[in-house]
Amino acid sequence: MENKYLQEAKALAPWMEEIFKHLHQHPELSKQEYETQKFILAELEKMGIEAVPCADTGVVGIIRGGKPGKTVGFRADMDALPVEEALDLPYKSQNPGVMHACGHDSHMTILLGMAKIMNEKKEDLAGNIKLFFQPAEEKDGGAKRMVEAGCLENPKVDAVFFSHCSATLPVGKIHVRSGATSAASDKFIVTFRGTGCHGAYPHRGVDPVVAACQAVVALQTISSRRNNPADPVVVTVGSIHAGSAGNVIPATCEICGTIRTLDPNTRKRVHEDLKQIVTGVAGGMGVETDISIKLGYSATICDDEMVALTRAAGEKVLGAENVLKHPETSMGAEDFAYFCEAVPGCNFRYGVNSEKTGKATAHNPAFMVDLDALPYGAAVYAQIADDFLNRD
Ligand SMILES: [Zn+2]
Ligand SMILES: [Zn+2]
Questions:
Q1: How far apart are CA 179 and CA 25, in angstroms?
Q2: What is the per-residue pLDDT for 271?
Q3: Which of 51, 83, 322, 358 could hold 173 in an S-S bridge, CB 3.0 to 4.6 Å?
């Protein structure tokens, strides 16, 4: 027999589709989620769920159970991307140049779906369910601001869950993975300072371009020579800027890149490796350097117990054959990391792919969510809430 939460979620499918379409038609960029916030607050109010704004454009809601118990939290990110939607869907974005190309509209929808299901059972709930609608995941880190604003307190949250949609996974399946599910993402900028001169007389100056090029190549030895190959590290230089004429050696050259790591100690070490290599290579050529490393999101590390609970809940809703092991960790960044740093958590993926959606993945202008995926997401969340609040 079909799982009871899946039955209930499927019965809510037309309502969830309307919610999704509204959100998809009205996407807002990071830190500008004003209308989205109003919409979420209004939907929660219609259900009679207490909710307040948080971190400017976010929302925290709470379903208070009729019996005492623990508190479990679920998070949905709210922001869209500066992408022009390529598909001509009947519910296409009405905000030119902005699109929910990462599926955060579906994340908010399944969280509202779960809230509607569980709110009707609140008298029987042993404990509370907190709903986190988080702004600015794509940029500027709304998660950190929500955690700092105290969203995990009063009542204290004991565990937190989040599922990002996956455009490579079919509808009705989830991927669950232990350990790191997204990488720490840090940005670096290095300015190489030499002495400009005529390109025909290089001995009269100090060339920062040659030094920068040597350094870019040498930086690749951080992952290939200094690092344990079993612990993934990426160092990418994505931009190099210097000079404006072919016959002039410029005074400076700037490189900019990203560092991705999973382990906090590796992260620190890679920063030191980068500084040592850049100053050493440039110094050997008489070039000075200014190095700036800006810390981005931390790595998301899932808690083993919460991973096991998610897997078991997923099996009840979808069947064991539809709960897959995530094949590899992602070196992408995800600020759900800050929730998982504060309390035990699990970050898993749910499938939104089908023949209807094509193969475009997240951030692509042709990205599309199959609406049939929504009840599965909401039902897995509901089962997790039930299992977490009723476990010994
Ligand atoms: Zn994204
Ligand atoms: Zn996303």
A1: 35
A2: 98
A3: 322
Secondary structure of residue 301 in the 3-state scheme: strand
- List domains and CATH numbers for the chain: 4-182+299-389 (3.40.630.10), 184-294 (3.30.70.360)
Helix (H) or strand (E) holding 313: helix 304-318
170-185: burial string, b at 16+ Cβ within 10 Å, e else: ebbbbbbbbebbbbbb
Over the stretch 261-316, which tens digit does the pLDDT of each residue have? 999 999 999 999 999 999 999 999 999 999 999 999 999 999 999 999 999 999 99
> Ligand 2 mean position to 222 CA, how many Å?
29
Strands (E), 12-78: 50-54, 58-64, 67-77
CA of 226 to the centre of ligand 2 (A): 32
The pair of structure tokens assigned to 3 is 């799982």
Judged by its nearest atom, the ligand closest to the C-alpha of residue 104 is: 2
- Residue pair 231/266 in contact (Cβ under 8 Å)? The answer is yes
Q: Kindly report, residue by residue over 304-330, the tens digit of the pLDDT.
A: 999 999 999 999 999 999 999 877 889
The pTM assigned to this predicted structure is 0.93
**C-alpha to C-alpha distance for 266 and 334, rounded to whole angstroms:** 18
DSSP code at position 222:
I
Report CA(142)–ligand 2 centroid distance (Å).
Answer: 13
pLDDT at 140 > cutoff 90: no
Measure the CA–CA gap between 64 and 119, rounded to whole angstroms: 8
The count of residues in the chain is 392
Element (H, E) at 179: strand 179-182
